[in-house]
Design brief:
TIM Barrel; 41% helix; alpha/beta
Length: 238
């Protein structure tokens, strides 16, 4: 089985949201995963874990990329195309300062080392609430923009892990080979396990192995709660 371990932001600055990790915490997670599990990339002919990052926050370049290089671990970073090179409009630190998204130069440097980039759509909207035309545009246009700058794009990560049959159909039509989100039924519904500031090695191991079942259900519930909170912050973004 292939599943994704999903990170968002890696930073030493305390965030108001739950979708982040301290650099040292992140390195402990990568060290544990690299030691005890197989790290794979989409399309590899073996089971394992795909390390992913949603949103394309600049902290991935500043803090996560050096860790990945140090341990020789590749990953997939999903970019919100309309935000590349711009400030983050929804998450802020306790100081009130906004972070930024990756620039094209940073993306190209990471890609040259071996990081793969995929689409996280154009605007990070909940695709299940959009019209069919808007879904098709979010998926196809984001892929087109990325491919003009960095070459073939194989992967899509569905914002907020919200996906249905129509979205999968449009993703396939747009030419994506791998979709991240959903229950893990096929290559366009690869299961994601989100890792947050509330996690530790024990909870990460539970998410990967999906046992003990009671603890796993508890961790999935925590993921859903943090996910809902993130959706609310998107609605009130400035």
């Amino acid at each position: 089985m292939v599943k994704a371990i999903q990170f968002h932001r890696v930073t030493p600055k305390v965030q108001l949201c739950g979708t982040w990790n301290y650099p040292g915490q992140f390195e402990n997670f990568i060290r544990f995963i690299h030691r005890d599990f197989s790290v794979v990339m989409p399309g590899d002919d073996r089971d394992g874990l795909v390390i992913t990052f949603d949103d394309g926050d600049r902290s991935v370049y500043e803090y996560a990329f050096p860790v990945l290089k140090r341990h020789g671990v590749r990953a997939v970073v999903f970019l919100i195309v309309d935000y590349i090179g711009k400030d983050d409009l929804w998450d802020i630190t306790l100081s009130g300062k906004r972070s930024a998204h990756l620039t094209w130069d940073e993306i190209c440097e990471m890609k040259e080392w071996g990081i793969e980039f995929g689409s996280h759509t154009l605007t990070h909207r909940n695709l299940t609430l959009l019209t069919a035309a808007d879904v098709a545009y979010e998926l196809s246009e984001s892929k087109s923009v990325l491919e003009k700058r960095i070459g073939p794009v194989r992967c899509i990560s569905y914002p907020f892990n919200r996906v249905n049959r129509q979205i999968v159909r449009f993703a396939k039509k747009a030419g994506y080979q791998y979709g991240f989100g959903g229950a893990g039924n096929n290559d366009l519904l690869i299961k994601k396990e989100a890792v947050y500031i509330t996690d530790n090695i024990v909870s990460l191991n539970t998410k990967i192995r999906e046992r003990p079942w009671v603890l796993y259900r508890y961790d999935r519930l925590k993921q859903q709660i943090i996910n809902y909170f993130t959706m609310i912050t998107m609605l009130i973004k400035r």
